[in-house]
């Protein structure tokens, strides 16, 4: 319950009480119940009937109890005001149906009220039937005047109490439905925010993989080529010059792939830019040539009849091979023999990159860093399985199998 609702209920109760005083004055002026209650008592009873409505939302059952008892006293003591009192009782009963959270309590409270009012009306009708009442124009029709009056009052009261009951229940059901709708809306908004956060995380991981595999590969080659050029600078300037030319080409390739990746990120509708999308298993010979220029000895083996694979599969397998050869350069060093093995099977495509580990050791051991994490993530996106670890004897092997039929 909000502060605005509390103020609105208080204002409504005050307005109805003022209207009841006016109705009381008019009733006394026209001679209604000349032997009725005194003005002070009448005003006090009307206050008990109407003013509790200020709390009809926060305490609907107590308000109905007070209003009902006061209403009966208004009728028994013949207070010359009927209109506003009936409105107040209707609102009190409606409020129980609309605002009482314990629905069983709401039902039996209203049920008791209906029974009490029915008994009181029957007693009132019995009293009236024992009195000599005169009805102007009576005797027209099949019913006696008393019977017709009784049926009329019964019909009015049925409509009165049934209406208050139904409208109260309808208001409760509508409020409950609105609350459920608001809850589902909040849950949907939370779920959408969660999905958005997950999408951002996935995209960040994808960008990190591309940066690592594309740029880090070239940077690693540049480091190897620069070291080789420095070593040969005095003893063999010609070969040193060749290493520097290779270093220049590698740096250009790195910058080119970086610009391509940035262009892809700026394009909202782009998934793979044309150059990146062209990288696949067909690009392995060029990748091996770059590795050999850096000092590795690499052989490429293919088993089975080659066939076109989805672009995403080809790109990820290419990146895994690229990262594997980069790791060979960093950790096993130039002079190492490596083998890239591709097998085209009926149900999967397999890639294996293995080395003999006999080259110059790198500055640190292979410890499953970001490169291995990125390769596992790439395999997982293809529903594939990646295995990486030391070979029997010496060296390292990376093996990945990707089932056919994955999404492109």
TrEMBL record:
<keyword id="KW-0472">Membrane</keyword>
<feature type="domain" description="Signal transduction histidine kinase subgroup 3 dimerisation and phosphoacceptor">
    <location>
        <begin position="203"/>
        <end position="268"/>
    </location>
</feature>
<keyword id="KW-0808">Transferase</keyword>
<keyword id="KW-1133">Transmembrane helix</keyword>
<dbReference type="GO" id="GO:0016020">
    <property type="term" value="C:membrane"/>
</dbReference>
<dbReference type="Pfam" id="PF23539">
    <property type="entry name" value="DUF7134"/>
</dbReference>
<keyword id="KW-0418">Kinase</keyword>
<dbReference type="InterPro" id="IPR055558">
    <property type="entry name" value="DUF7134"/>
</dbReference>
<feature type="transmembrane region" description="Helical">
    <location>
        <begin position="61"/>
        <end position="77"/>
    </location>
</feature>
<dbReference type="Pfam" id="PF02518">
    <property type="entry name" value="HATPase_c"/>
</dbReference>
<feature type="transmembrane region" description="Helical">
    <location>
        <begin position="149"/>
        <end position="168"/>
    </location>
</feature>
<dbReference type="GO" id="GO:0005524">
    <property type="term" value="F:ATP binding"/>
</dbReference>
<dbReference type="GO" id="GO:0000155">
    <property type="term" value="F:phosphorelay sensor kinase activity"/>
</dbReference>
<protein>
    <recommendedName>
        <fullName>histidine kinase</fullName>
        <ecNumber>2.7.13.3</ecNumber>
    </recommendedName>
</protein>
<keyword id="KW-0547">Nucleotide-binding</keyword>
<keyword id="KW-0812">Transmembrane</keyword>
<dbReference type="Pfam" id="PF07730">
    <property type="entry name" value="HisKA_3"/>
</dbReference>
<dbReference type="InterPro" id="IPR003594">
    <property type="entry name" value="HATPase_dom"/>
</dbReference>
<feature type="transmembrane region" description="Helical">
    <location>
        <begin position="83"/>
        <end position="99"/>
    </location>
</feature>
<feature type="transmembrane region" description="Helical">
    <location>
        <begin position="37"/>
        <end position="54"/>
    </location>
</feature>
<dbReference type="InterPro" id="IPR011712">
    <property type="entry name" value="Sig_transdc_His_kin_sub3_dim/P"/>
</dbReference>
<keyword id="KW-0597">Phosphoprotein</keyword>
<dbReference type="InterPro" id="IPR036890">
    <property type="entry name" value="HATPase_C_sf"/>
</dbReference>
<dbReference type="GO" id="GO:0046983">
    <property type="term" value="F:protein dimerization activity"/>
</dbReference>
<feature type="domain" description="Histidine kinase/HSP90-like ATPase">
    <location>
        <begin position="316"/>
        <end position="404"/>
    </location>
</feature>
<keyword id="KW-0902">Two-component regulatory system</keyword>
<keyword id="KW-0067">ATP-binding</keyword>
<feature type="transmembrane region" description="Helical">
    <location>
        <begin position="111"/>
        <end position="129"/>
    </location>
</feature>
<dbReference type="InterPro" id="IPR050482">
    <property type="entry name" value="Sensor_HK_TwoCompSys"/>
</dbReference>
<feature type="domain" description="DUF7134">
    <location>
        <begin position="8"/>
        <end position="131"/>
    </location>
</feature>
């Amino acid at each position: 319950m909000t502060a605005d609702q509390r103020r609105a209920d208080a204002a409504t109760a005050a307005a109805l009480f003022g209207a009841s005083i006016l109705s009381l004055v008019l009733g006394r002026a026209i001679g209604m119940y000349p032997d009725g209650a005194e003005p002070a008592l009448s005003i006090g009873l009307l206050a008990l009937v109407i003013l509790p409505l200020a709390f009809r939302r926060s305490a609907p059952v107590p308000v109905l109890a007070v209003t009902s008892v006061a209403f009966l006293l208004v009728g028994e003591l013949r207070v010359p005001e009927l209109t506003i009192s009936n409105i107040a009782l209707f609102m009190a009963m409606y409020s129980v149906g609309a605002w009482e959270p314990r629905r069983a309590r709401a039902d039996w409270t209203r049920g008791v009220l209906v029974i009490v009012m029915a008994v009181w009306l029957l007693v009132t009708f019995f009293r009236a039937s024992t009195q000599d009442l005169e009805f102007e124009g009576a005797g027209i029709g099949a019913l006696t005047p008393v019977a017709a009056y009784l049926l009329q009052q019964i019909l009015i009261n049925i409509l009165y109490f049934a209406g208050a009951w139904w409208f109260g229940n309808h208001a409760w059901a509508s409020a409950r439905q609105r609350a459920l709708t608001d809850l589902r809306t909040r849950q949907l908004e939370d779920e959408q925010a969660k999905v958005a956060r997950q999408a951002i995380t996935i995209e960040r991981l994808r960008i990190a993989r591309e940066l690592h595999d594309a740029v880090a590969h070239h940077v690693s080659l540049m480091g190897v080529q620069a070291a080789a050029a420095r070593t040969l600078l005095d003893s063999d300037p010609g070969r040193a010059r060749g290493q520097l030319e290779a270093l220049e080409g590698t740096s250009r390739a790195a910058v080119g792939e970086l610009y391509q990746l940035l262009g892809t990120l700026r394009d909202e509708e782009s998934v793979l830019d044309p150059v990146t999308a062209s990288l696949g298993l067909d690009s392995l010979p060029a990748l091996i040539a770059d590795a050999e220029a850096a000092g590795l000895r690499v052989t490429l083996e293919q088993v089975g009849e080659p066939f076109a694979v989805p672009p995403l599969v080809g790109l990820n397998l290419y990146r895994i091979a690229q990262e594997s050869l980069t790791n060979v350069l960093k950790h096993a060093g130039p002079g190492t023999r490596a083998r890239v093995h591709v097998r085209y099977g009926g149900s999967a495509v397999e890639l294996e990159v293995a080395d003999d580990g006999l080259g110059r050791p790198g500055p640190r051991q292979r410890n499953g860093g970001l490169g291995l994490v990125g390769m596992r993530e790439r395999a997982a996106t293809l529903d594939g399985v990646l295995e990486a670890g030391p070979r029997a004897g010496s060296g390292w092997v990376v093996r990945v199998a990707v089932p056919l039929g994955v999404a492109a």
